[in-house]
Amino acid sequence: MNRAALTKFARFAGVGGTGFIVDTGLTLLLIHRGIDPYTSRIFAIIFAMITTWRLNRALTFGASRTSQTSEGARYFIVAILAAILSYAIYASLLITFTGFPPALAIVIAVGTTTLVSFFGYSRFAFKTAV
Fold first, then answer.
1. Backbone angles phi, psi at 78, to 5 degrees
2. Is the pTM of this model over 0.90?
3. Whole-angstrom Cα distance, residue 51 to residue 47?
4. CA 103, CA 80: separation in Å to the nearest integer?
5. From the CB of residue 54, how many other CB atoms can be counted at a distance below 10 Å?
6. Average pLDDT of adjacent 10-residue blocks, the chain of 130 residues
C-alpha cells in the first residue's frame, strides 16, 4: 500500500471507530432499555451506516463525481452487504456461546468486515469516474 492509500485507510479507520461507538453504544443502550440484542443491533447498524456515510464522504473519500443519491445508493449497497456479514457473525457468536458479551461480538464482527467495507466503499461507493 502506498502512503496515500495508508492515509485514506487511517481516516477510514477513524470514521469506522466513530461508527463502532455509535453501533455498540446504541446496541447496548437499547438492550438496557429492554429490547432484545438482535433487534437492538439492527437499529444500531442503520444509525451507524448513516453516520459513517456522511463522515466517509467528508473525511475519507470525498464526494464521488455522481449525485449524492447515486453515491448514497452505492454506499448503502456495500454497507448492507457488510452489515449482513457483520450481523451473521454477531448473531452466530451470541447463539453459539451462551452468555457471550454483545459488545465483544460486535468487536469481532466489525473487525472481520472492515477490509470488505473499505474496498467496497473506495472502489464502488465513492468511485471517482463517472
1. -65, -45
2. no
3. 6
4. 20
5. 13
6. 86 94 96 96 94 92 85 92 94 96 94 91 76
